Amino acid sequence: MKVSVYSLKKVLFEGEAQAVNCQTVGGEITILDFHRPLISMLKAGPLRVTDTGQKDHYFPIVSGFLEVDGGNRAKLLVEEAAELAG
């Protein structure tokens, strides 16, 4: 699936991925290929994106939003924990 992770200052990840794991207000979820459409608020915790080469990319986040559309795309707008410190 096509995954885009944006902070307010930069693009954190953009590309093909096998899975996205994150903390939502409803609990921890994993998004896989062709997940049903979803919009959710994110809460503090690690965001993990597993790319197609099986490499995990971790981003500590404070909050954000997740949108999964019917076109096998996931978009995340997040506030990184590091942004608060700097």
Task: Label this structure with key terms.
86 residues, mainly beta, ATP Synthase, domain 1, 5-stranded mixed barrel, 1 helix, 6% helix
Helix content: under 10%
| CATH class categorisation | Mainly Beta
pLDDT averaged over residues: 94
The CATH H-level homologous superfamily: F0F1 ATP synthase delta/epsilon subunit, N-terminal
Number of helices: 1
What is the H/E string? EEEEEEH
Radius of gyration, Cα only, in angstroms? 12 Å
Distance between the termini: 32 Å
Described by the principal axes of the CA atoms, the overall outline is globular
Q: How many structural domains?
A: 1
List segments where confidence is low: pLDDT < 50 over at least 5 consecutive residues: none
Largest sheet geometry? 5 strands, mixed, barrel
Description:
The chain is mostly beta strands and 86 residues long. It has a single domain (2-85), classed as F0F1 ATP synthase delta/epsilon subunit, N-terminal (ATP Synthase, domain 1, Sandwich). The chain is 6% helix and 71% strand. It is built from one helix and six strands, in the order ββββββα. It has one helix at 81-85; strands at 2-6, 11-24, 27-32, 38-51, 56-69, 73-80. Strands 1-2-4-5-6 form a five-stranded mixed barrel. The longest helix is centred in the last third of the chain and has 5 residues, at 81-85. It starts with a strand and ends with a helix. The relative contact order is 0.30.
